[in-house]
Prior knowledge:
By secondary structure, this protein is of the alpha+beta class. It has helices at residues 2-5, 9-22, 239-244, 270-280, 338-353, 384-392, 395-398, and strands at residues 29-34, 37-38, 43-49, 56-59, 62-64, 67-68, 77-81, 89-97, 100-101, 105-109, 119-124, 133-138, 145-148, 151-152, 154-155, 174-178, 188-195, 199-200, 204-207, 211-219, 230-232, 235-237, 248-254, 289-296, 305-306, 325-329. The protein folds into three domains: 29-109, Immunoglobulins (Immunoglobulin-like); 119-207, Immunoglobulin-like (Sandwich), CATH 2.60.40; 211-398, Collagenase (Catalytic Domain). The protein is built from seven helices and 26 strands. Strand 17 and strand 18 form a beta hairpin. The longest helix has 16 residues, at 338-353.
Amino acid sequence: MRIYRQLGLLPVLAVLFGMLAGCTGKPPVIQSMTPASGPGGTIVEVRFTQGGLGGVVLFDGTAVETRYASNLGLGKILRFTVPYGTAAGNKDVQVRSDGETSAASSFTVTAGGTPESPQIDGVEIPNREGKEITVFGSKFTTLSKVFIDGVEVKRYAGSSLPLRALPLEFVDNAIICEPQTPFTLGSTHTVQVRNPGNNNSPDFTFKVPTRVCMMEFDALDGIPLPDYYRFRNNTLSTMRRGYTECGWILELSYDDTAIPDPQAGAVFTPADMYSFWQANANLPGGSEFYMHGAFVTADDQGLLGIMFMNTGSVPSLPNAERRLGFSVFRNAFSGSDLEDKYLRTTMHEAGHGFNLLHSDGDGVRSIMNQTSVVGSNFRYIFSDNSCDHLESHDIDAVGPGGEAFGSGRSCNNLH
């Protein structure tokens, strides 16, 4: 799958060279420690130079369980949890890497801290292989253990998108891990998170989706892709989580993110978007479901985004290409919640690619209500109507490349 092809030969060689170059024979040097104080249970990130790639944190002279910021298990960003019950005062923090130990930095323990019971509020399944799951919730730590169907499983540090680290501010909201045996499509499981002191979350039951879509993102040079994680209304959300909860696995790939602007700064018309799609979409063979997201400058209607691949927008569009592409227009976004709405619009336009309508919004501020009118009170969820369509309607009416947009539905508004 394309999601793994990004590594390629050159990056692998670079990693191997970096492993050799990273073994400097010099003691590691701590660059920063965030935060520098807090009670027991505080999650701390330590960044260092020199030494080797990876290492372990020594807290008050004792090695503590250490996790990496990258899911490849390499790098110079380490995370640990201040042990519960530690007496208040200044404590030495050191890094041991490549057989060498850094000079100490000081962390101020403000109180012993009390382990809390974690809570789970959702999961994300990133691909059909079933070898990875992200558990979302609150009050997680680097010491939290994950149990799937009663069996403890291995934790990762990043996501399945290569080298994409889980930001420090979300370490207590997400744990990415590997089930003991790969999930099968349609199977049902329970997950539990356990904090020190046998503080357990309630069991959370989930079903692995049965429908899979490969989704490729391309962007113009200088146009960023949406943030993978957004935290809003006390919930950590991702695009894949939203679709997992409604019966679809999105196998995301970030393909070309520095494409020269074919419009040279001019706006995109639907015909221009279709030409961009034809030049950049990498359709899989066989019967795979596929959708392409283009992140460009602006369109000729002043929209935030549009699912343009419909017979009414692209004349003589082949039936097999219906609902295979959408565009999001970065220059149309502004304000303090720009990034929140950028991701929301991406989920919304992809929803049209799955033949969802604005009327599927169910009268609440869910994804298929238009981003331009929802104000600040919105969440990254689909309505019950939308979920029912995504998960259980006939696959030809849902899957990209199937029936024309709006077939048998109540409206034909694409944006």
